[in-house]
UniProtKB/TrEMBL annotation:
PANTHER family, alphabetized: FORMAMIDOPYRIMIDINE-DNA GLYCOSYLASE (PTHR22993)
Name of the featured protein: Fpg/Nei family DNA glycosylase
Pfam families per record: Fapy_DNA_glyco, H2TH, zf-FPG_IleRS
Catalysed reactions, as listed in the record: Hydrolysis of DNA containing ring-opened 7-methylguanine residues, releasing 2,6-diamino-4-hydroxy-5-(N-methyl)formamidopyrimidine
Domain named FPG-type: residues: 237-271
Family statement drawn from the similarity comment of this UniProt entry: Belongs to the FPG family.
Source organism: Micromonospora zhanjiangensis
Length: 286
């Protein structure tokens, strides 16, 4: 799933490539991906792309300062920029992985695609990003939040730390991968209860959040959209590295699996050397 650093990099890429171009048309292939109907996609035609930014993990393409194409790429979505499309034939609804295409006046543009069968990519054409329900509910941005606000948000929602850190209403921008990286850098168990954090633990978590996300943004911005997934994987220390040695202490990175996700951690760095119970294995040995 694209998280804050990747969405920031995609916004920077669009600012470099698309700003100053005018929209020729927006084509919708996956009807379920477009969550708004007023204004219609045709309202974007002829408007200049004036900016691109983000709200948490939402990408915001600004058209003439009046319309916003706001996109949440969900778990399997991505943006593919095309210098030129191979055909001028409009997209056929329901065909292939392309959910939405934005054609620009110089022949370039970008596709929003989604792999897999769970179609959750969402696009909104609005006059104000706050009209998007997910944007309106976002907590403070994880990349810029100050320590006092961070402490208040973490302790204000009781739960296991991994879940609280990825709750977009608590803090915007952190997902499954970077939460593993942040918790590893802060040397905290993913199952610590959030409202029991000490002042030192909160400070360490805040520092880790800023440093992990800041480092990922620095590595990502300037990369081509097609290279961002590989860049993300290359910078990870524990996430998706089950069975490999921890780069800090050398212990084996472990995993806890859930119904539709998993987390990775280092026992030595994060849990006092004690492996956490894997729910999947626990069910098998009963």
């Amino acid at each position: 799933m694209p998280e804050l650093p990747e969405v920031e990099a995609l916004a920077a890429y669009l600012r470099e490539r698309a700003v100053g171009r005018r929209v020729d048309r927006i084509e919708v292939s996956a009807i379920s991906a477009l969550k708004t109907y007023d204004p219609p996609p045709s309202a974007a035609a002829g408007r200049e792309v004036t900016d691109a930014g983000r709200h948490g993990k939402f990408l915001d393409v600004v058209l003439d300062g009046e319309l916003h194409l706001v996109v949440h790429l969900a778990r399997a979505g991505w943006l593919h920029y095309r210098d030129a499309f191979s055909s001028g034939v409009p997209l056929r609804p329901g065909k292939g992985p392309i959910a939405l295409r934005v054609r620009l006046d110089d022949g370039s543009g970008f596709d929003l695609t989604e792999a897999g069968t769970q179609k959750k990519l969402a696009a909104y054409l609005v006059t104000d990003p706050a009209q998007v329900p997910g944007v309106a509910r976002l907590g403070p941005d994880a990349a810029t939040v100050d320590l006092a606000t961070f402490a208040e948000r973490m302790r204000g929602r009781r739960g296991q730390l991994k879940g609280v850190l990825t709750d977009q209403q608590v803090l915007a921008g952190v997902g499954n991968a970077y939460s593993d990286e942040i918790l590893h850098a802060a040397r905290l168990s993913p199952f610590v209860i959030s409202d029991r954090l000490t002042d030192d633990q909160v400070a360490a978590l805040h520092t880790a959040t800023r440093e992990v996300l800041g480092g990922a943004v620095e590595r990502s911005v300037g990369q081509r959209a097609a290279e961002l997934k590989g860049e993300k994987r290359s910078g990870l220390r524990v996430h998706a590295r089950t069975g490999l040695p921890c780069p800090v202490c050398g212990d084996t990175v472990r995993e806890v699996s859930f119904a539709d996700s998993s987390l990775q951690y280092c026992p030595t760095c994060q849990t006092g050397g004690k492996p956490l119970a894997d729910r999947r294995l626990s069910r098998l040995v009963r």
